[in-house]
Design a protein that fits this description.
CATH architecture of the largest domain: 3-Layer(aba) Sandwich
Structural class: alpha/beta
Helix content: 25-40%
Mean pLDDT: 88
Radius of gyration: 22 Å
Strand order of the largest sheet: 2-1-3-4-5
CATH topology of the largest domain: Rossmann fold
Number of domains: 2
């Protein structure tokens, strides 16, 4: 008896979701567990529904398909769908990532599904390369809070603070905890926009208002919103180099 596969459709166009739903009817071993009409809903449902296969549209408002993968860490069982876009197709071909070009036939759909089945459970390094090429620096940060998923725009972040095994992201007057190291998120942020001013603090330069004296030889960064962050000697030198 064959194993039933759980599938999720992610596309902001209802007609596109309907077509995939129709094509899946031929495959009795696939259980359609959900449909998403936005990238944000997909981020939530990928986490809760744990699908084996994801039919993922690339061009969606707010969160693209590649941003969904970047935020969720998903790297297998993904079948991309996309309308014609010369730049996007060139990137897919360059990194040898398969995709379905809309409109696609049942035969083309079945062939892509067969390839995805063969790759199930195996991470696809090409996806990492494609995601990195499409967005070398983070533009959004995903925060899971029980049943909620917060998507924080990097541009809205004031500063990020290391707290043991967590980081505390301060943005728009709120504080969000995320299980990640400060060094890890620093490597994903544009160094022209974020600076490590202290071993425990990263600041958003766009939110920096003043650099103040703190004590005899120390300094502190005053950020928009009134936050005050300590600056180490090394951090001060970094700031002087960049500003």
């Amino acid at each position: 008896m064959s194993h039933t596969l759980r599938a999720l459709i992610v596309d902001d166009e209802s007609l596109a979701r309907h077509l995939i739903r129709e094509y899946l009817q031929r495959h009795t071993d696939i259980d359609l567990v959900g449909e998403c009409d936005s990238g944000l809903q997909a981020v939530r449902d990928i986490d809760t529904l744990e699908p084996d296969l994801i039919f993922l549209d690339i061009q969606m408002p707010k969160l693209t398909g590649l941003e969904v993968l970047a935020l969720t860490g998903r790297r297998s069982g993904v079948i991309f769908t996309t309308a014609y876009d010369a730049y996007a197709l060139q990137a897919f071909d360059l990194h040898a990532v398969d995709y379905l070009l809309k409109p696609f036939s049942q035969e083309r759909f079945d062939a892509a599904l067969a390839r995805a089945r063969a790759m199930l459970g195996r991470s696809q390094p090409a996806l990492d390369a494609l995601i990195a090429a499409s967005a070398p620096w983070l533009e959004r940060v995903l925060i899971r809070d029980r049943e909620q998923v917060h998507v924080i725009l990097v541009s809205s972040i004031d500063y990020i603070e290391a707290q043991d095994d967590y980081i505390a992201i301060h943005a728009e007057g709120k504080c969000y905890l995320k299980t990640q190291s400060l060094a890890d998120i620093e490597a994903r942020l544009d160094p022209k926009g974020f600076v490590r001013v202290h071993r425990s603090y990263l600041i958003n330069l766009a939110r920096l208002q003043t650099i103040e004296r703190h004590g005899k030889d120390g300094h502190a960064a005053r950020l928009a919103g009134g936050h005050k962050v300590p600056i180490s000697r090394t951090g001060y030198e970094r700031l002087r180099t960049i500003i």
